[in-house]
Amino acid sequence: MEAEDKKTFIVSGSEAGNRADVFLVQKLPEFTRSRIKLLNDAGMIEINGSPQKSGYLLRAGDIIDVEVPEVVDTEIKPENLPLNIVYQDSELLVINKAQGMVTHPAVGNYSGTLVNALLYHVKDLSGINGVARPGIVHRLDKNTSGLMLVAKTDAAHLSLAKQIAEKTCKREYVALLEGEVRAGVGIIENYIGRDKRDRFKMAVVNEHDGRAAKSEFAVIKRFAKFTLVRFKLVTGRTHQIRVHARFIGHPVVGDEVYNPNTKSGTGLKGQLLHSAYISFVHPVSGKTMEFNAELPDYFSNYLAKLD
């Protein structure tokens, strides 16, 4: 799960010994202890970089990071937009999101989003993320296509979010990268945080300014000037694959933010990055669920021109 607003607190000596949830209610008076527990169960609270129980007893110097879901007062209206539902039952949906569709409403963009479509097509959605993000367990960037999880109940939402936080929910992406990635397989592990020169971008930063980020990759196919790569997300930071691809010197083709000067993405409407696989344990049945999504036409057509 990702949130726009991150708050960080450092525990003082006089505050040591308090329960984490009690401490946070004092720091965030707009939240109740039950609301804090929901955020914690959803993996949106970390202490010293790791999830902890709500009853964790604080020590002086502990650093608490809280991702606070953005609250939008503007009414979010249902819209009859195309929605590719791969699977659904009483607890959840698996969506194959189209490139160009924003996941949830935000300032200046309250219509045409996945949430608007969900409100029209789906009767019940979880409410943990508030009115602006009903059902949204994790998001995809506007120009990233592919599989997403959506929760219908709060219990399902908590279960799925916990699986993502504990890294038992598996997510894999396919990306076309600039240049030749020489290593057949590899791991990219560092810290990602806000770019200090541009707050709308993320960047690889030091451990004090960001959160741990880890991606695994394997080359699928090499072309003359490009490499098709499959990424496995170990963590799920904002723009993680796009930032990691740029970090290793092979940015994603068509990425206007992290690969703005290339001409190879001419004619594309966004980055060639697709959420191709997801697996998780069903919150009620306990069954392992697996889903695959083929590359969209614009992606496969671009690859066909490279052969």
Describe this structure in words.
- 18% of the residues lie in helices and 31% in strands.
- Strands 4, 5, 6, 7, 8, 9, 10, 11, 12 and 13 form a ten-stranded mixed beta sheet that branches.
- It starts with a strand and ends with a helix.
- 39% of the residues are buried.
- The chain has six helices and 13 strands.
- A hairpin with a 6-residue loop joins strand 12 and strand 13.
- The chain is an alpha+beta fold.
Short summary:
The protein has 307 residues and is α+β, with helices and mostly antiparallel strands. It has helices at residues 20-27, 33-41, 114-121, 154-165, 240-247, 297-306, and strands at 5-10, 45-47, 63-68, 85-88, 92-97, 145-151, 170-178, 185-195, 198-205, 211-222, 226-233, 273-281, 288-292. The two termini are 37 Å apart.
Tally of helical segments: 6
Overall pLDDT level: 88
Count of β-strands? 13
Radius of gyration: 20 Å
Instruction: Give the overall form.
Output: globular
Main sheet properties: 10 strands, mixed
Task: Tell me roughly what share of residues is in helical segments.
Answer: 10-25%
SSE run: EHHEEEEHEHEEEEEHEEH
Distance between the termini: 37 Å
Task: Decide which structural class fits the backbone.
Answer: alpha+beta
Share of residues in strands: 25-35%
Low-confidence segments, ≥5 residues, pLDDT <50?
Answer: none
